[in-house]
Amino acid sequence: MKRPTLGTIVMGVVGFVILIWLLGIVVYPAENPSGIYTGKIISTASDSILRRACFDCHSNETNFPWYYHLPFVRIKMGHSINEGREELNFSHWEQTSPSRRRKIFRESLEYMDKGEMPPTDYTFFHPDAKLSKEDITQIRQDILQAQSDGSIGVQSSGNNGDDDDEKEEHDKD
Predict the structure, then answer these.
(1) How far is CA 69 from CA 18, 65, 120, 126, in A?
(2) Cα(142)–Cα(100) distance, rounded to whole angstroms?
(3) Is residue 3 part of a domain?
């Protein structure tokens, strides 16, 4: 059996990279879906923090950096963005039920407290997205204030919406 030449190996590697690059372009295009939300999510201060730290993965307002177009980076980032939008998309906030909003805020604060959101691989390239203790405190206080004044999680019916959390979890599975 004939051994492959250096030229054949190089051509194989180049072909593989081009294939991955083209696959990334088809599967993860560098464009945002239509629809953005311009209303208030929590408060002016907290919304500013959310836009800085969360919107690239959790909205239809992703800013695609130059390195997004690199073959393997595009696949990793595109997958992360799709997962983020699937879990929580602030561009669809007005369609999010009050019970789902409460659940999102509760879980998001847990992730922030543990340092899991935003993820380290994101903040490595976007250091301004890193959340400080003050940012988390601001978000927590604004959520509590919004819940107490009724602007988040208000149910128009007589129930408190807690069973909606279970129903939505079941629907997601």
Answers:
(1) 12, 8, 20, 17
(2) 17
(3) no
In tens, the pLDDT along 36-94 reads: 888 889 999 999 999 999 999 999 999 988 888 887 788 888 889 999 999 999 999 99
pLDDT tens-digit readout, 124-159: 889 999 999 999 999 999 999 988 887 775 433 333
Structure tokens at 114: 């543990």
Domain assignment of residue 148, given as a range: 8-172
Decide if 142 is inside a domain: yes
Q: What is the 3-state secondary structure (H, E, C) of the chain?
A: CCCCCHHHHHHHHHHHHHHHHHHHHHHCCCCCCCCCCCCCCCCHHHHHHHHHHCCCCCCCCCCCCHHHHCHHHHHHHHHHHHHHHHHCCHHHHHHCCHHHHHHHHHHHHHHHHHCCCCCHHHHHHCHHHCCCHHHHHHHHHHHHHHHHCCCCCCCCCCCCCHHHHHHHHHHHC
